[in-house]
Design brief:
Shape: elongated
CATH class of the domain at 109-122 and 249-378: Mainly Beta
CATH architecture of the domain at 109-122 and 249-378: Sandwich
Number of helices: 5
Subcellular location: Membrane
Distance between the termini: 74 Å
Keywords: Membrane, Transmembrane, Transmembrane helix
Protein name: Late embryogenesis abundant protein LEA-2 subgroup domain-containing protein
CATH superfamily of the domain at 109-122 and 249-378: Immunoglobulins
Radius of gyration: 46 Å
Main location: membrane
Largest sheet: 10 strands, antiparallel
CATH topology of the domain at 109-122 and 249-378: Immunoglobulin-like
Length: about 375
């Protein structure tokens, strides 16, 4: 009383102990630890009240009898816990190799291997007496000087009409002077001096027809007052807008791009819907979509992208005309696109950006004086 005694029960022969405990005697609120019970002590020793200390180092005779007598392992449960932890660690490591992108799969790649410019049609180039204006003083927000920066562009000849990005020679004011006919007016020419077999003087090349004065353009049987580039662009844009219900194009252009997709993995890949854009100085002027398709394992496939330029606003068309006039029919364009792809657990977005410079004077042959493509991949 006032003391407590705890001890281990002896392990039966052939059995494995769950755990061992210490024997202690509590006396006067203090613990006195006694040696561990030796499973090999005799019954006489227990009856006599003698508790022999257990020596953890077995003797030669004990080593020989290990197979015959059970040995009580006090930490057997730790071995099971450690084995379970190692197994879980190995399984998690193997699972991470399968799930983390880049360990198990490699990203698909793509490359633009061909570019074909099928047509470029800038209607303003048919106007007479055009020249590119110097717009180096104009701000980016008003590159032609037609709005708040009016007057920033300069014509090569002070006598030319300034229409922002483009200047035109020999064009009077929009309403003429006095009772002159407005630009765009068409009248019949005086063909009284022309022969009977060539009433307009076109077949023989004889300039026999006459217009009211030198401000008119002689087209044989007809005379017309020339349009300024500004009138041409604004008038054509409004006319096409009435036909289509929105602001349509002033420039006709079509491009064909060949793209090669490669899948370096042992599993098939899926390419999603791609988007491609043609831009001029940052402004989108044409778009195209590509349909989703499958790519076999360790193979490459080709796809064709047709981009139609069909939405060019008037101010952008004037800038394109200015560049064509100033650079000897050279036109700079930017083609960029994005395409999502998936292989296994890896998802990649492929990007491309191609800076092009086209020599339109060589059409229908495609001559690129500059072709620089950069590729990007995002996981």
């Amino acid at each position: 009383f006032g003391s407590s005694l705890s001890f281990c029960a002896p392990c039966p022969r052939g059995a494995v102990c769950g755990h061992c405990c210490q024997m202690s005697v509590r006396k006067d609120q203090k613990d006195t630890k006694l040696p561990l019970w030796n499973p090999r002590e005799s019954s006489e020793d227990r009856k006599g009240g003698k508790i022999l200390p257990y020596n953890g180092t077995p003797s030669d005779s004990e080593e020989e009898s290990d197979d015959d007598e059970p040995f009580c392992s006090c930490r057997a449960w730790l071995v099971g816990v450690c084995a379970c932890a190692v197994t879980v660690f190995i399984l998690l490591g193997a699972l991470s190799l399968l799930l983390v992108p880049g360990f198990q799969f490699r990203q698909p790649t793509w490359r633009v291997d061909s570019l074909l410019v099928e047509a470029v049609d800038v209607g303003a180039l048919d106007l007479e007496g055009l020249a590119a204006a110097d717009t180096g003083r104009c701000p980016p927000g008003d590159p032609c000087g037609l709005a708040q920066a009016r007057g920033c562009s300069r014509c090569p000849d002070p006598g030319m009409r300034n229409d922002g990005c483009v200047c035109q020679r020999g064009v009077p004011g929009e309403r003429g002077s006095g009772g002159a006919a407005p630009p765009g007016t068409v009248v019949e020419a005086d063909t009284s001096a022309c022969p009977l077999l060539d009433r307009c003087g076109i077949l023989t090349g004889v300039e026999c027809s006459r217009c009211p004065d030198r401000s008119w353009v002689n087209d044989g049987c007809l005379c017309r007052r020339p349009l300024s580039t500004k009138q041409f662009f604004r008038g054509l844009e409004g006319f096409l807008g009435l036909l289509s219900g929105n602001a349509s194009t002033l420039v006709q252009m079509s491009l064909q791009a060949g793209v090669e997709l490669s899948n370096p993995n042992h599993l098939g890949a899926e390419a999603g819907e791609g988007s491609f854009f043609v831009r001029y100085k940052g402004t989108p002027i044409g778009t195209a979509k590509t349909a989703p398709q499958s790519i076999g394992a360790n193979t490459s496939t080709s796809m064709s992208v047709s981009v139609r330029v069909d939405r060019v606003p008037a101010d952008v068309a004037m800038q394109m005309t200015q560049e064509l006039l100033d650079s000897g029919n050279q036109l700079s364009l930017l083609v960029d696109g994005r395409l999502p792809a998936r292989v296994g657990f890896l998802r990649v977005t492929c990007g491309v950006r191609c800076d092009l410079r086209i020599d339109t004077s060589q059409l229908p042959a495609t001559v690129l004086t500059k072709e620089a493509c950069r590729y990007s991949y995002g996981v």
